[in-house]
What we know:
Layout: H1 3-17, H2 23-30, H3 34-46, E1 51-54, E2 57-60, E3 66-73, H4 79-88, E4 92-100, E5 104-112, H5 115-127, E6 140-147, H6 150-163
Antiparallel strand pairs: 1-2, 3-6, 4-5, 4-6
Helix pairs in contact: 1-3, 2-3, 4-5
Amino acid sequence: MKGAERRMMIFQTLKTAGKPVSGSSFAKQFGVSRQVIVQDIALLRAEGNDIVSTSSGYLLSEHYKASRVFKVCHDDASIEKELNMMVDLGGKVKDVFVSHKVYGQLQVELNLNSRADVERYLESIHAGKSVPLLNLTSGYHYHTVLAENELILDAIQNKLEEYGFLAPLRDYEPADFAGRAN
């Protein structure tokens, strides 16, 4: 099988999968190394395809009409409640990031769309010796959340405030994070 044909099949699989597909499963399916798949994904991205890498595999990015960055603060025990609330209300949690005084900005792509995604994410945290980023900044962190419309983001913001998770921006922080979701 030629590379162009394999890339076309990878793209078609990503279009119909509805969930992340691992590089390993592609490699097994096509009888190539995972590194070949990584190169194929890079070539597909270079062609303008918006392919996202997640901890569970590759997926095509969905185009949401609205995005907002929320500054929040809570402990490890509230991570599940926070993330489930966002996805339950129709948001996609694109990332988590912190602004550390020494290390600067540290960001991780999450791409959480459902409670199942949240569960897998939490399992991966608990399976290792690492800690969530929020522990680096005393619980303060940010999430870029994507949604179909601003009303969904307003509902998420109201719920974050109701739960006591929403944290106020400080004078030294940018007031508008809208460009982060691009």
